[in-house]
Every structure is written in C-alpha cells, then in structure tokens.
From TrEMBL:
Name assigned to this protein: Acetyl-CoA hydrolase/transferase
Source superkingdom: Bacteria
Parts forming coiled coils: none
Keyword Hydrolase appears in the UniProt entry: yes
Keyword Flavoprotein assigned: no
Length: 396
C-alpha cells in the first residue's frame, strides 16, 4: 500500500525483521508505535530469545506482551511501566538520559528499532512527536521498522531518516496519546510564584510536565526560551501571551491536541545528544532548571524514583538538567516541591530510594512556605536552611 514519500508499506515485514536472539528497541513517548505492539510481541515469541529495550512510556501499552521477550530493560521507567517494573517483568536501569547513546553503542546495542515515522516536507521520513535516543540507535547500527502515523505532526529539526535503513511495516490514523494532568492546586501556585521570581528575563528554562510545571509557566511574567526535555502543553499559552522567546528546544512532546496542533511544522525536536548536553546547556544564556522530587534529605539529595516496592519514575533527565543549571553562570538548579505529601513531610532523614540527583547539583529549594538558597553553604548550613524551610529543628 503506497503511503507517499517514495516508499510503501511491506505488510508482514516486521516479523521478518525480528531475528532470533536479537535486541529490539521500541521507540517511546506519546507517539510510540502502539499499533504494531501485538505484532511485535508475536514475532518475538516466534523467533525466540528476543530482548526488548524500552524508553519513556507515559501510559501502559496493554497490547505489548512482555512475556514474549527473553529480557526486557528500560532506560527510563516512565509512568506506564510502574507495574511491570515492580513485579519484575521489566528491569529499570538507573541511568541518566544523556548516557543512553553510549549504552546503545555498547552493551545495549539494538539490532532493530521499531518507531513511528511521518513524511518529511522535503521527502523521505522523519520521527514524529519525539526524537530522544532514536538517532543514537540508528547510528549504532539498528535498522528502522517504521510505522507511518498520518495523524502525527512533523516537528523533527533534523534531516530525514536514512532511506537505506528504513522499512515501512505499518501505518495508522490513530493520533498520539494525549497527556492530561491534574490542575494546579493552591500549593502548586504558591510554589510557582516563588519559582517565577527566580527566573531572569530571557533565560532558558526547563520544566517538567504535571501540575507544578503548568503552574510555573502560568506564573511567568517575563519572556523565556524553552529548553526542556519534555515540552508541556503550557508552552502554547506562553506563546499566546507573548512570553516565548525563540523556538523551543526539546526531544519529547508531552501534551495533547492543542500542543500537537501548535507544534506542527515547527523544528522543535532534537536528539538527546543535543538536548541533554551539559556543555551546551550550561553555556550561553542563563539556564534555569526547575524540577521536583518525591523526597529530599537535609543535604538536598533528591529521590525521584519511588519507594521500596513502588516505582514512580526513573532518573531520566533530572540529574542532567540539575547539573547544567548549577553550572550555568546566572542560571539555577531549582527543586520545587510541596512541603508535605499525603500528610507526611517531604524532607526526610533518609531517602527511601537511592539518590537520583546529588545535593551538590541543587542550588535552591522552593516549597509553598518559602525558599532555601543552598549556594555557598557548607553541609551543616545546608541542613539548617532546609530544616528551617520545613520549620523543624535540625538534627545535632
């Protein structure tokens, strides 16, 4: 069946591309190629010994039978992987996103990448709503099994995919998953006002998705450049208000139809070798990283991964962006979080999981009650500042 751009879909070809004992990487994000998940699992079960590599899956893929694979690993244990990580079906790797390309060229080198593709304006095909680590997989030698997505916008800033490495194995009219988050509460808005006051006009800004990220973008009153691994829906309103400077730099879209319509035709998406490059992020215009945490200890060490037996997320780009913000002249690494969660303080004596981001990459901590500036403080002073912010005495 012809789909334009000089290529045609080869029905049934995916099963031929999945070889016994091979490693298959499944592209991630809201545009992951879910229409062929069942076909991929069936091909893996028939071939035998196939290993699967996953990235950020924001929503569980019920058609992907993980039992069909000999081994399943994830470089970013996103929300959709919480249950299979907890029950042992998926091995969640403690790796920052900037290190993923190195792994793909080394012990996790994939033979095949199954990904969503869209026609590129000048001919050929490109990635759709995410680029992430996929170019690294191709550079490491993987062939691409492409699923043409007719309802997905083109916003890849790079060149088309190499035609000699691409085989079209399917097509779909289903749009990418729409991410919806709870609206900000009063505590989020109070935190966001304090965060916005710390962002200099014209700075480059990174925020995460979710209620707090929405609140931070709504609280801004001066123009910023968006330089963020996940680009949330709030960027559309930021642009409407005249507060978006330049073209955002991102590697994943993280929103719904409004964001997709706004993003169509814009050169937004770059590989993580660019988006998460600490040297680029920490040079030039001031870079402000705004991240949250599940827990924080009195040295500012951050847990974003979860609790014993209860996965929340992965290291992802948290450590990359925090380190870049702390290194950026005029920039900041900010951890913004409510002072309590379900009635329990989020400042703890000991983290419930290994450190996701070290305390020395945290400059400022913001809660709904105030701000603790940790820059230039020794360890005793850092502890005192954080305990004061949470309004309880520091341990002796």
């Amino acid at each position: 069946m012809s789909v334009g751009a000089g290529m045609s879909v080869e029905s049934g070809k995916l099963a031929e591309l999945v070889e016994p004992g091979s490693r298959v990487a499944l592209a991630d994000g809201i545009g992951a190629p879910r229409s062929v998940s069942g076909e991929l699992a069936a091909a893996a079960a028939a071939a035998g010994g196939v290993r699967l590599l996953l990235g950020w899956l924001p929503v569980a893929d019920r058609e992907l039978d993980l039992a069909a694979f000999a081994d399943v690993r994830a470089v970013m244990s996103g929300w959709g992987l919480r249950r299979p990580v907890d029950d042992g079906r998926v091995r969640a790797l403690p790796v920052r996103l900037s290190a993923v390309p190195s792994l793909l060229h080394g012990p996790l080198r994939p033979d095949l990448l199954v990904a969503t593709v869209v026609p590129a304006p000048g001919g050929g095909y490109a990635f759709g709503t995410e680029v992430a680590w996929m170019h690294a997989a191709i550079a490491a030698g993987a062939r691409v099994a492409g699923v043409v997505a007719h309802a997905t916008p083109h916003c890849d800033a790079g060149p088309p995919l190499p035609a000699d490495r691409l085989v079209l194995v399917g097509e779909t009219d289903t749009p990418p998953i729409a991410l919806e988050f709870s609206p900000p509460g009063d505590e989020h808005r109070a935190i966001a006002e304090r965060v916005a006051a710390l962002v200099p006009a014209g700075a480059r800004l990174q925020v995460g998705p979710g209620a707090l990220g929405v609140a931070v973008l709504e609280a801004l009153r001066t123009p910023v450049h968006m330089d963020s691994g996940l680009l949330p829906e709030g960027v559309v309103d930021l642009d409407r208000r005249g507060l978006l400077a330049g073209t955002p730099v991102t590697t994943y879209l993280a929103g719904g139809p409004g964001l997709l319509a706004w993003a169509a035709g814009r050169r937004l998406l770059h590989p993580i070798e660019h988006t998460h490059d600490l040297g680029r992020l920490s040079s030039g215009l001031p870079f402000v990283a705004v991240n949250t945490a599940i827990e924080l200890d009195e040295q500012g060490q951050v847990n974003v991964e979860g609790f014993p037996g209860a996965t929340v997320g992965g290291v992802g780009g948290h450590a990359d962006y925090a380190a870049a913000g702390a290194r950026s002249p005029g920039g900041l690494s900010i951890i913004a979080m409510p002072a309590t969660h379900r009635g329990r303080p989020t400042l703890v004596e000991r983290l419930s999981a290994p450190v996701s981001t070290p305390g020395h990459d945290v400059d400022v901590v913001v809660t709904e009650h105030g701000t603790a500036d940790l820059r230039g403080l020794d360890r005793r002073e850092r502890a005192a500042a954080l305990h004061h912010l949470w309004d309880r005495p520091a341990s002796s």
